[in-house]
Amino acid sequence: MNKAIIIGNLTKDPELRTTPQGVSVCTFRVAVPRPYKRDETDYLNIVTWRGLAENCAKFLSKGRKVGIVGYIQTREYDDSNGQRRYITEIVADDVEFLSPRGESTGSAPRMQDVPPPPDDEALFGDEPDDFEPLDDEQMPF
Questions:
Q1: Model pTM above 0.85
Q2: Which of 7, 45, 99, 129 is the most exposed place for a label (fewest CB within 10 A)?
């Protein structure tokens, strides 16, 4: 089984390209902090294709928080100096945009932005005060 699930923040704006066959491909890098080691971060290359690629290029930017589900792929090529190069990347099947719209950083909403919960009177104000529970004989099932 080859499945990758990550949550992280974009390190720079996504890059959208088109293959010679006309297929859209978008690449970006995501910073993912390691659990239990706050001072260590992994920087993972992400690849998206077709409509997902176009949406990522349109709606994502540096600092945005994303959730990604995909698979890990390793590929190789020869660079201009004839050196064999290897690349490991995550090919995304699904990208969830986790930052609120219009927010460029991956921070969580501030407490002053969250409305307070309603009080009990607002929730249950129209309930009758003379509620009597049913006994077992009155239950329909």
A1: no
A2: 129
Distances from the Cα of 58 to the Cα of 15, 23, 35, 55, 98, angstroms: 10, 16, 30, 5, 15
Q: How far is CA 98 from the centre of its chain?
A: 5
Total count of domains within the chain? 1
Run of H or E including 122: helix 120-124
The phi, psi pair for 100, rounded to 5°, reads: -60, 150
Q: What is the CATH number of the domain that holds 37?
A: 2.40.50.140
For residue range 32-81, what is the model confidence (pLDDT) as tens digits? Answer: 998 887 788 999 999 999 999 999 999 999 999 999 999 999 999 899 99
CA distances (Å), origin 118, targets 65, 122, 123, 127: 30, 6, 7, 16
d(CA 13, CA 16): 10
What b/e sequence results for 107-119 when a residue is b if at least 16 CB atoms lie within 10 Å of its CB, and e otherwise?
Answer: eeeeeeeeeeeee
